[in-house]
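Forum: Protein Structure Q&A
Topic: Joint prediction for protein chains with partners

I've read a bunch of threads here and the consensus seems to be that you should model interacting components together rather than docking separate models afterwards. I'd like to see that in practice. Below is the full input, 918 residues plus whatever partners are listed. Could one of the regulars post the assembled result?
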Amino acid sequence: MNLTLKIWRQKNASDKGKLVDYKISDVSPDMSFLEMLDVLNEQLINEGDEPVAFDHDCREGICGMCSLYINGEAHGPDRGVTTCQLHMRMFKDGDTIFIEPFRAKAFPVVKDLVVDRSSFDRIQHAGGFISVNTSGNTIDANAIPVNKADADKAFEAATCIGCGACVATCKNSSAMLFVGAKVSQFALLPQGKVEATDRVLNMVRQMDEEGFGNCTNTGACEVECPKGISLENIARMNREYLKASLKG
Amino acid sequence: MALDSKTPKGPIADKWTNYKNKIDLVNPANKRNIDVIVVGTGLAGGSAAATLAELGYNVKAFCFQDSPRRAHSIAAQGGINAAKNYQGDGDSTYRLFYDTVKGGDYRSREANVYRLAEVSANIIDQCVAQGVPFAREYGGLLDNRSFGGVLVSRTFYAAGQTGQQLLLGAYSAMNRQIGRGKIKMYNRHEMLDVVKVDGKARGIITRNLITGEIERHSAHAVVLGTGGYGNVFFLSTNAMGSNVTAAWKAHKRGAYFANPCYTQIHPTCIPVSGDHQSKLTLMSESLRNDGRIWVPKNMKDVEAIRNKTLKPTQIAEGDRDYYLERRYPAFGNLVPRDVASRAAKERCDAGYGVNATGEAVYLDFASAIQRYGKEQATIKGLDVNDAALIKKLGQEVVKNKYGNLFQMYNKIVDEDPYETPMMIYPAVHYTMGGVWVDYNLMTTVPGLYCIGEANFSDHGANRLGASALMQGLADGYFVLPYTIGDYLSDDIRTGAISTETKEFEEAEKDVRAKIDFFINNEGSHSVDYFHKKLGKIMWNKVGMSRNVKGLTEAIQEIKALREQFWKEVKVPGSNDELNEELAKAGRVADFLELGELFAKDALNREESCGGHFREDSVELDGEQKGEALRNDEDFAYVAAWEYKGEPSDAVLHKENLEFNDIELKQRSYK
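Posted by a regular:
Agreed with the consensus. Here's the joint model:
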């Protein structure tokens, strides 16, 4: 198929940036979206132009490195996938596709479609861990039985890949789904309950400092989340936060 | 230099304990004056960085991704082995040790493997304490499953995302130390050289991938946890950024590179769909617990399938060739990866491949869905003769176990694996070879360590499933933190290492010269053009099946391609910005050297062992006819190559492998 691409080009963080049109032909429906961009970049290099910068690594939907806001949706039109798993069969011959970076105050653009998501790391530094040393001198793993339903829920929360689609999708650029997932994973497990109070207070404080917005319960983040992280996690974080504040 | 593995004396079961009791330690106050650089933040590097920081060292950690959480360990699917014997099925440290040595086709170092098995159980305790959400049974205890090449269930897992959960565990341990200031994290930094001062590794040169800035970093020791080099094949299951550069630069600075030809071609990956393909996707080995592998028995069915006039589900049971079950009745679909891959290739080469390219076999879940469905119906007291109900119940169980893998398959191939068998084919997945290390995990450069997939030590010529995660975490959490202390105990009076020395200056100059060359070269072909060509040579001539003619040609072709690359490579943009083409150019330059050494090593090793299959070394008759034939008399050694300029000039050093605790014999999975 033949496509028109409108891609956000921005030289660096201080450049203003603009959408630039590109034509691409002979796109196979079996290509992934990023493979289509590889073909475009090869074309640009051969013509003496600068290739489009975009983040990617594992290309199997698990590392969370790829991003892209495609036709107004984080990770594009398909559901339950990251951009690297999006395939061109989702598009039609003659389509025009808008490709932009994830936009949020806390995710400044680095270049073209690449953004800086280190704010997510800093939230994790503030409390996304259990304070246990890695010496191995701990109790036998089966000495801590965990109810299967809780273990499964903790696992589901822990499958967040930290891509930032929730933030890019939210009209308030809120990171509550991301933070809620981490808080929930530990809040659901006996090992994590010990320092639950400090964890939620510290992570929420850092989230606010980074400039993420608040949650107004529209639920768009859950719809666009490639891993289907549930809104339940935001509710659980709010309960944890309230509990911690009352104790505090 | 003679290769001394520094393996401690004494009975194998006591070596590690005795070693730990006798090494020199660094007291906590002195640790504060010692800096350690860790490159790579996957399971090995991430766990090492966290543990060293906890112990009190000042750690500087580096990764090329935008966050340490994105290292490619994250993509590991199936699980992690540990000799816990929770299932009471006869597992033990010795059995895990034995399975690993046998699975590696008797080409690993016994003492390292025993230590790995010994610390494995503790990894699970550690990870659970960190909040890693492993799969559990209804009683609240941990669940296990089986992997290839073993007869027990010792694999712990978190659905099809075990690597992700373990890496997030190591990442959380790092975060705690980053928050305390004990780890200084450098994201989006690529290591471009090792700096040696007075013969010891004392630092690295990096490039900031965002600003292009070249930086000097010093430390008392340098640890590489930079993963494998499977991307030398261009197409592999590795991440796009996975590369050999750190390991190769270490090699050029004096670290021997061991067994480069030992590559794991994983049997269950999604087949190549076209020339645009940028990478291949693995379907976890855990699927072979429940999936049965087959091709049609009759050529007319193969043709009908390719013409799309017949569906695989329409082929009767009796017309299917479950070739692994046929050839290897004892292990069936759970033979080790090298054996399963060669068997798939054998069927496809014979013309029985089931897709348009003739390079695919089926992985079928229909009988597992039936079995689980009936089991669930029985438990729930429902009608076991209701076919639709059985299928629904069975699919739910399968979804619970492998849901994310089935979804991945569906998105890539656009077929529903619950309804029709998956199509799979072998692909490059893991490299057992790597930087040579002694028992301390130190390379031939003093103070330079190498851990995880980047080193060569534990998997011999073939790695068993779910053992990579085990090795990465064992090295990082439990082995290196001891062994490095023994070395650093000599450095308590050294003081901070200056970067204002001629050694750093020269290393930086070399790095800058190469970057300037790429930016200024008026070339005509992109970096990928060369990388794809290299990949084709590697896959066709140094891939699953190797012979003297092909290997000799490959060496010549890679050398010629490398010369063309240095003349004609074209890198757009400038150095002082985010420039992925520039980063790729440096990586491919190193792959073009490694590739030749790889082929040279494969040519040197005139035997078949594990993932290295030489057509001139097979069993000619008897029960094992056609199977790989090892030559223990001449090749029971580690081939460690010393850098001497061109790859063709590399000098071979041998570490002879001694097997005192396991009898050397033909691997049989029949």
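Strands of chain A lie at 3-9, 18-24, 69-70, 73-74, 96-100, 109-111, 114-115.
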